[in-house]
Fold each of these.
Amino acid sequence: MTLAIGMITVDSTDPVPLAHWWARVLEGEVVAENEGWFVVVTTPAGTLGFQRVDAVTPGKNKVHLDLTTHEDLALVAGGLLAAGATLVGERAEGAARWFTLADPQGNEFCVAHEG
């Protein structure tokens, strides 16, 4: 069996602004809005979908994005915070260091230095 990830989809009660936020921070583009019920964003790293739901599952999201950068990690995290993300925590394990952030609707994601 051969499989590939076609899209990662996020549930949202208001997917349009969330999709536009992710398109902006990932230097992507909203390519379909489907009357606001399913929004598709293409980025250099892959495709994200944002689908409208009546209520999101409470608690911590079970799947999250791990983003990497070649740039200064603190500056990138600061830029995401300035764009509307919130800081969940800064973590380190050995030489590895990363920031856990949440997007404007509370979906957690991590940013680490690639390498």
Amino acid sequence: MKVTVDVDITPEEMRKLFGLPDVEAFQRQLMDDIRERMNAGVEGYDPLKLFQPYMAGTLASWDYFQKLMTSLPASGSRTDEDRSK
């Protein structure tokens, strides 16, 4: 059986439905900070250095997630015969 449900709601309504926080103010502050840094260093503008403080934690999280996902197939590949040994 296959069931399909179409939901017509805004992203804000979806966040509230799942109980996720409203990060709009944080995103606005982050973008203002980035814009300020870009304006301050126009001559020596290096986008990699600009985003490094914001991306360090995110990249570490993705690395952990990737390792977790690659370890799952190995742990779930045992058969019933293997488990009885």
Amino acid sequence: MRRAYSVVCAVTAVAAAFVTGCTQDTDTRAATTAAQRAEPRELTYTEELRLSDAQQRLIARCMTEEGFTYRVYRPLTVEEHHPVGYVQDDVAWAREHGYGSRIRAKADTARLGNPNIAYRESLSEERRASYDTALGGGSAARELSAEVPEGGTYRKRVGGCVAESEKRLYGDLATWFAADKTASGLQAHAMEAVLKDSRFTAAVERWSQCMRRAGHGHPDPGEAREAVRRQSQRLPEAEAFGAEREVAAADATCARETSLRTVAEEREAHHMDRLRGEYGDALDTVRRIQRDALARAEKIAGRQP
């Protein structure tokens, strides 16, 4: 249950509005989904990291050609990029990182320490304006728009080295933007349906019973992590993190014991399949573009994230 449930995001660009950011899945999840459906699978979070790294390298090369310095910057480790989803069943990771509060704090600190921000601030006002134009296209940046299934229109300005990097990876930007936004909207619809799905809610109830036996009376995973967040505001940091890890480990253990994640993935696949009749072309398009982009990214940045 990818986009709605991830809470960890890499800090990889000088301006978040310019560069694609978070990834939100696991290798196991993608492999499971691929086995369930014949359509091209979603990228794993490590594959999306390769895309992000490749885009950063392309931006850096382009900015160098424009006469500026731009550093590829990924302050979080691959392990720290591990997505913390609504259904999290990696017990070992939870025991060490809890729900990822320290990782989020590290990302926030890294955002302030981004060397590209410091470099931009060191420039004169005139050069800074030229830097912004080189990076994102400035006022001349092209506007993309995409109508989405839930209604409404998404818009995005693309230009400069960011646009050039996206073209190198994804090809025609208008096609990619429209397909990606359509797929995101459909996935949001599917996940809303999952939350109301009787098989999923029954699995959540089993999870809740397991948590009560473990001494944590929470009705669902979302409430468990929200309770941890509220508690952390009242406790010293070390004590709060210890409590976070305890609850997160119990959460992951119960998710594994009740197969909550497996049920969630199966029901999401079911509801997505129901949308394929009308939107199958868009879904196939976005997956094809992603796979082609990954192949290009691996030539640029290698296979290891």
